[in-house]
């Protein structure tokens, strides 16, 4: 019951694993065997898998255990598909065929026709397994098989790559592996490589049948058996179980109903070992050890792959981060330089303000001249004031234009220079003395600049007005009255230029402050590239898989310690 409970806990770890839910993950080819291994963990029957090179007599050994020629044999290479022999009250053969898109189908065929679904097609130069056959299951009323065992015969390895791969896939689902060796030429280099791999895979649940002992001289048989045992021990296999036999002799004796086959003790001892495992708790421990070993092997492969990929991704991410940091520093430096250049251009704008002042004076005088030319009543206060407004608007527009030109091509919103927003609300009254009307108008208009540009002393306007008034009282009817009026108006306008310049400089400084804030707000920042984002996703994925594999391996180690296997 304890073993079943522990298997259930492992099964739950597989079922609950988020990494196994992502079938599109980059490590899925390594994780899929783990997900599929749930079927093996919960499998009731114990699989005893026979494997070895071609023509060492695997099928004959299985037949000898069964006591009849259940598996077809011949002098040429025989087995082409995985064939399972399981307990059934009556003989039957079920063939599993491959369908499209990885699906399969099972059909029952006559027992007598089983050979055509099992044997290799050797009629041509290219040897082929039976087309479309995945595996064959033979039901047999053999007491040894009841209730636990399934004997599995596999195609010979080390000859055909596809058949070798199929055999190894079946070995990864085994509870006990029986490697069949030929006594006449045992333990080739490739056989030794296979033994090391499979022995580690099933955590030592591996035994050996040394078949065809009749091909070894009588006086050399004991030496051959001893040499095989010693060779296996040198490969790290402690106390290897080696069963020497003549499978064909045993098969003939059993088919004739003779008990003399017991004299061939090797195969009889193997059968006794299987019975002991089946009938005692040793079998459960054997099965669990194999399944844990295979599961650990899958986890080790997945862990090794993902750990390597994780390290590679992390190195690449670090390289990308350094590369992007260099780009960022270069972009920030270029941006700071651009902002500094624009700030310098704003300072240059202040040097252009005197010209803007000239344009303002000229614009105002020109407006007055046009008024004088077309209107004899040009001395009207409102008319003179109306000429002043366009000049101020022109000044504002010119200052705004040179500032925008300095900021361009930055995508920064530059506020319009608006003298009205700097007004103090001061109001200057015009003189009512008839002789000083014109002078009062001029002085009043100049004083009225406070309405547009801020605090301008009313005294300034009054002073100019008095001066102008004195001149008007003497020259009002003089033929040069317009020229003299223009001179006074121009002089008054020139006196206003410094005040306009102060306001314009304040405006430029405010734009400079806005530029600084704009530069800080729009300073290039680190941006995650598409490649970095993708690799970070990969990093998280591989890190999660590595963590899960490590925890799973630790759980397996804990289980093995707990149940002392």
Please render the helix and strand layout as text.
Blueprint: H1 2-15, H2 28-36, H3 38-41, E1 46-51, H4 58-66, E2 82-87, E3 92-98, E4 104-109, H5 115-118, E5 133-140, E6 149-153, H6 161-171, E7 176-182, H7 189-201, E8 206-211, H8 221-234, E9 242-244, H9 247-255, H10 265-279, H11 281-351, H12 353-374, H13 381-407, H14 437-447, H15 450-453, H16 458-475, H17 481-521, H18 530-562
Parallel strand pairs: 1-6, 1-7, 2-5, 7-8, 8-9
Antiparallel strand pairs: 2-6, 3-4, 3-5
Task: Write a concise keyword list for the protein shown above.
565 residues, alpha/beta, Rossmann fold, 18 helices, 9 strands
Q: How would you characterize the largest beta sheet?
A: 9 strands, mixed
Helix content: 55-70%
Number of strands: 9
CATH architecture call of the largest domain: 3-Layer(aba) Sandwich
**Content of β-strand:** 5-15%
Descriptive account of the structure:
The model is unreliable at 423-438 and 440-479 (pLDDT under 50). By secondary structure, the chain is α/β, with parallel strands linked by helices. The chain has helices at residues 2-15, 28-36, 38-41, 58-66, 115-118, 161-171, 189-201, 221-234, 247-255, 265-279, 281-351, 353-374, 381-407, 437-447, 450-453, 458-475, 481-521, 530-562; strands spanning 46-51, 82-87, 92-98, 104-109, 133-140, 149-153, 176-182, 206-211, 242-244. The radius of gyration is 51 Å and the shape is rod-shaped. Helix content is 58%, strand content 10%. The longest helix is centred in the middle third of the chain and has 71 residues, at 281-351. It folds into 3 domains: 1-42 and 281-322, no CATH class; 45-279, P-loop containing nucleotide triphosphate hydrolases (Rossmann fold), CATH 3.40.50.300; 336-521, no CATH class. The protein has a 9-stranded mixed sheet with strand order 4-3-5-2-6-1-7-8-9, with helices on both faces.
């Amino acid at each position: 019951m304890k073993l079943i409970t522990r298997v259930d806990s492992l099964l739950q770890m597989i079922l609950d694993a988020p990494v196994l839910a992502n079938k599109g993950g980059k490590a899925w080819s390594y994780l899929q065997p783990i997900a599929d291994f749930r079927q093996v963990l919960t499998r009731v029957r114990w699989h005893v898998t026979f494997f070895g090179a071609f023509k060492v007599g695997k099928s004959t050994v299985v037949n000898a255990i069964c006591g009849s020629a259940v598996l077809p044999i011949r002098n040429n290479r025989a087995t082409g598909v995985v064939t399972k022999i399981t307990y059934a009250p009556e003989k039957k053969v079920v063939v599993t065929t491959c369908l499209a898109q990885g699906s399969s189908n099972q059909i029952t065929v006559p027992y007598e026709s089983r050979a055509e679904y099992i044997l290799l097609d050797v009629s041509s130069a290219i040897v082929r397994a039976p087309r479309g056959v995945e595996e064959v299951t033979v039901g047999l009323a053999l007491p040894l098989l009841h209730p636990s065992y399934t004997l599995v015969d596999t195609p010979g390895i080390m000859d055909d790559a596809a058949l070798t791969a199929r055999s190894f896939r079946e070995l990864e689902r085994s509870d006990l592996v029986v490697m069949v060796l030929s006594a006449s030429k045992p333990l080739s280099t490739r056989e030794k490589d296979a033994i090391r791999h499979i022995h580690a895979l099933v955590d030592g649940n591996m035994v050996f049948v040394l078949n065809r002992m009749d091909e070894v001289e009588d006086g050399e048989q004991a030496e051959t058996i001893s040499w095989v045992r010693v060779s296996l021990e040198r490969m790290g296999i402690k106390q290897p179980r080696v069963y020497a036999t003549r499978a064909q002799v045993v098969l003939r004796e059993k088919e004739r109903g003779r008990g003399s086959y017991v004299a061939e003790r090797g195969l009889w001892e193997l059968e006794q070992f299987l019975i002991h495992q089946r009938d005692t708790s040793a079998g459960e421990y054997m099965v669990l050890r194999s399944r844990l070993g295979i599961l650990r092997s899958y986890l080790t492969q997945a862990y090794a792959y993902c750990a390597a990929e994780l390290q590679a991704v992390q190195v690449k991410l670090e390289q990308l981060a350094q590369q992007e940091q260099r780009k960022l520093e270069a972009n920030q430096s270029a941006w700071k330089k651009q902002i500094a250049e624009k700030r310098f251009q704003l300072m240059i704008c202040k040097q252009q303000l005197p010209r803007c002042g000239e344009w303002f004076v000229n614009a105002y005088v020109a407006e007055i001249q046009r008024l004088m030319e077309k209107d004899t009543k040009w001395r009207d206060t409102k008319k003179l004031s109306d000429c002043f407004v366009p000049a101020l608007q022109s000044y504002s527009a010119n200052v705004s234009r040179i500032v925008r030109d300095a900021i361009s091509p930055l995508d920064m919103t530059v506020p319009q220079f608006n003298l009205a927003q700097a007004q103090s609300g001061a109001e200057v009254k015009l003189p009512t003395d008839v002789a000083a009307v014109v002078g009062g108008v001029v002085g009043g208009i100049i004083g009225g600049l406070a309405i547009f540009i801020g605090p301008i002393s009313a005294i300034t306007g009054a002073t100019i007005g008095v001066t102008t008034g004195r001149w008007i009282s003497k020259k009002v009817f003089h033929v040069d009255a317009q020229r003299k009026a223009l001179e006074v108006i121009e002089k008054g306008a020139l006196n206003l230029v410094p005040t306009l310049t102060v306001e314009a400089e304040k405006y430029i400084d405010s734009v400079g402050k806005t530029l600084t804030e704009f530069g800080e707000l729009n300073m290039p920042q680190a941006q995650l590239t598409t490649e970095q984002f993708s690799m970070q996703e990969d990093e998280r994925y591989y890190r999660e898989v590595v963590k899960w594999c490590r925890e799973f391996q630790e759980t397996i180690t804990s289980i093995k310690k707990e149940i002392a296997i």
